[in-house]
Protein: HAD-IB family hydrolase
Organism: Streptomyces lonegramiae
Amino acid sequence: MAALGWFTRRRHLATEASVLAGEASAEAARKSSVQVPAPKAPEPEFPVVGDERAAAFFDLDNTVMQGAALFHFGRGLYKRHFFRKRELARFAWQQTWFRLAGVEDPAHMEDVRSSALSIVKGHRVSELMTIGEEIYDEYMADRIWPGTRALAQAHLDAGQRVWLVTAAPVETATIIARRLGLTGALGTVAESVGGVYTGKLVGEPLHGPAKAEAVRALAAAEGLDLSRCAAYSDSSNDIPMLSIVGHPYAVNPDGRLRKHAREHGWRLRDYRTGRKAAKIGIPAAAGVGAVAGGTAAAVALHRRRR
């Protein structure tokens, strides 16, 4: 009996020791184990199919198209001998000055703008449209970013409307939008009466905050909910437009926009190679190209009518 009692006590002690060992082992395992994060819920489908109150707004230059639309337009006009290098250089330098200075002096900008508008004064809108159709096929069609084009098509396939939003003349923007099968375009509007340019703008160039105001106005007229809309741009100048929609995208972004997008959790898309990104990512260079091309177009129209 004594031996049996000893065996029972040893069994009891062993059970306590086993429990202690098990608890200690479990605690050690818990502390040393790799925490596996819970799986993230999949992002909701975007764009939302059938959402008629959603739409997409795309900047043009370096977002949808490589380079500036007006620069390519100017190339086409120069090829047709509509103006001389000396004339182009004079107007381009006026535009380059404030870019290099880093200050957009209102008085200087107004002087440049007035010069360009005075050149097209008295010319027909149809003339610009005809030239634009030809030059799109020559210089622009092969410069559309396939990646951005696919984004726009995704919105169209979802049954949503898609607009270009650009500082380029609305006539040029409309040609590009139509060729890409988009809904339409918002662009800078030059005043015309009876199809003839008066030499004045309606308001100001569609740039920076003006783009945001244009998108707001269109959304109100079309019954859109901006919180369900998307906007795409490469430039920090378009932060006002990107900020008013629920789905902002930085596409081929310049340095400032890339930084802003990361700080605010905006989505990024970059379809450039490293070398192209370095070149296109300089806002001043892109701006000079756009402005010089636009001025070239104005000069060419003037010479062609003389």
